[in-house]
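Let us begin with a simple case.
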Amino acid sequence: MPASPTPPNQPDEAAEKRLRVNRELAIPLTEVVLRTSRSSGPGGQHANVTASRVEASFDVLASRALSDSQRARVIARAGERVVAVAQDERSQTRNRELALNRLAERLARALVVPRKRRATRPTAASRERRLQAKRRATERKRERRRPSEEG
């Protein structure tokens, strides 16, 4: 029998489950706290006895998977604790998947770096439209004036 690559009581770090947030980031599921409770969603009497609602929460400050810049960006956009809840399905397993997917989406949105705007010159057509609008406004105001007494 071949020897196992890791001792039996130590977790294999390569096999550790991770939540894929984007191409660059996958956070270990050990950093995500999952809580279950009774759902107010579909299921009838089943919902009264089954803890199918799942809440996934991620503590941004305590995470070792995020770089300092990522941590600062997530805190600025989503707060120190990112939470996602799912109670859409009767199955706790399916709600767990949904909550983790929603958590990953929120983190991914918080991590997006907006593109810098490059200043451009207004086009000739837009300048002409602006001037036409100004002329129309001037004419409108001129028409509102009292008629001159000289006539």
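The second case is a distinct protein. As before, the sequence precedes its structure tokens.
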Amino acid sequence: MIGGKRKSVLTDEQLVEATLDGAKDAFGELVERYQERLLRFLLTRSNSRADAEDAIQDTFINAYRYLASFDSRWRFSTWIYRIAIRNAAKQHRPEWHDSEVELVDQLDPLAACIAYAEHENIWVAAKRLLSDDGYNAMWLCYVEGYSVKEIAAALGKSVSWTKVTLMRGRRRLGNELAAAPVAEKRGESYG
């Protein structure tokens, strides 16, 4: 409650309109709503946290600069992710190699455990196995909960392309996980 009045929750589209009409705090509210989600997404696409933070800053600057071009037929979240995807594409992503795990293993056991855990992460595997667009489609679907239509709009692709890409991505990741070695079960029991 502000000044005895209850603060109403505006939609993203209402905040866009308010920003365009000169309300100074409206865009700040949009930034607050999307900052953590976009940062989480960009961290998976960047070499470092600093690069992800640079990309998110560029995303919000570009969003503000081109806010008048926002088409209210689409969700604001779809539009802002499209900008973030473009900013992330400007950065170089490192490729993961198994030899890195072996090298770290020789240096520090704790670092080796961390590297192995990161290596086995589904999103690390997805980054390694899928194209950029395929990875983005999977992230938007399974982390952000976007519909196929929203993913297609965010990536500038057709709905058919999106469906096929999601199916192929699931299949490729499923095959990778199925081929991963499973820890051997011991026949021993304690007690």
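The domain at 7-93 is CATH 1.10.1740.10 (Rna Polymerase Sigma Factor; Chain: A). The first helix runs from residue 12 to 20.
Keep these points in mind for the review questions at the end of the chapter.
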